[in-house]
Design goal:
2 copies of one chain form a homodimer.
Chain A lengths: L6 H30 L4 E2 H9 L13 H10 L3 E6 L7 E6 L1 H25 L4
Antiparallel strand pairs in A: 1-3, 2-3
Helix pairs in contact in A: 1-3, 1-4
Chain lengths: 126, 126
């Protein structure tokens, strides 16, 4: 039996794993939420909606969503406009584009294939 | 309706998504495979075993596994030794450590929480 490394290294590895896992799925979840939205949504609304879906990596810090939203807009999968707010400064509202809808379908298929593989590999792991 | 960007941008985004998704789950799958192995395995064996689990991101290029194996060894989750091969040059054999087993249980729990969230978000996406 090989001696275990200091706990801090394991914690670092776990954080790295969660970061890598989340960077892919957060973009997927954002597209899915905006695909089902009836009207454009702003960041806080999107974050609250994601939180409602459970306590995985999706319910992380709201601030982590903004770079992903900007990135998805940069590649044309989302579009945004600045609009008035009932209270406070104007907000940026995001909507999914036609390209975003098409991409969501591809990503969802890629997700399902990966999920099934991982679940099969993990069978028997407590 | 916003005009779609050139297909190449969507393809780039899909590749980025698959890369991010895979970087997290490949490490998880490697730990799971080695956790179930009765004896240390070498790279080609591990790659063939992963291929048997389906056509998601896990059945990618064998060469993509090696940096992840080295990384897992660097953090003490795997251990390796060089041993003889029936044919050809000596091979590097990998085994999971006690720390790796503990980490696998944590990662598997993180995976399941994330998977359930994403599946819920994706409900209704074709």
């Amino acid at each position: 039996m090989i001696e275990a490394p200091p706990p801090s290294e394991i914690e670092v590895a776990l954080r790295k794993f969660q970061r890598e896992l989340s960077s892919g799925v957060v973009a997927l979840a954002l597209l899915a939420v905006l695909s089902r939205a009836r009207e454009p949504m702003y960041g806080y609304q999107i974050a609250k909606t994601l939180e409602g879906f459970g306590d995985g990596v999706l319910s992380g810090k709201q601030s982590a969503l903004y770079p992903v939203l900007r990135n998805l807009e940069g590649t044309g999968l989302l579009a945004s406009h600045v609009g008035p707010s009932d209270a406070g400064p104007p907000r940026r509202y995001y909507a999914i584009t036609a390209a975003g809808q098409a991409t969501l379908r591809e990503w969802a298929a890629a997700w399902r294939a990966t999920r099934d593989s991982v679940d099969t590999v993990l069978e028997g792991t407590p």
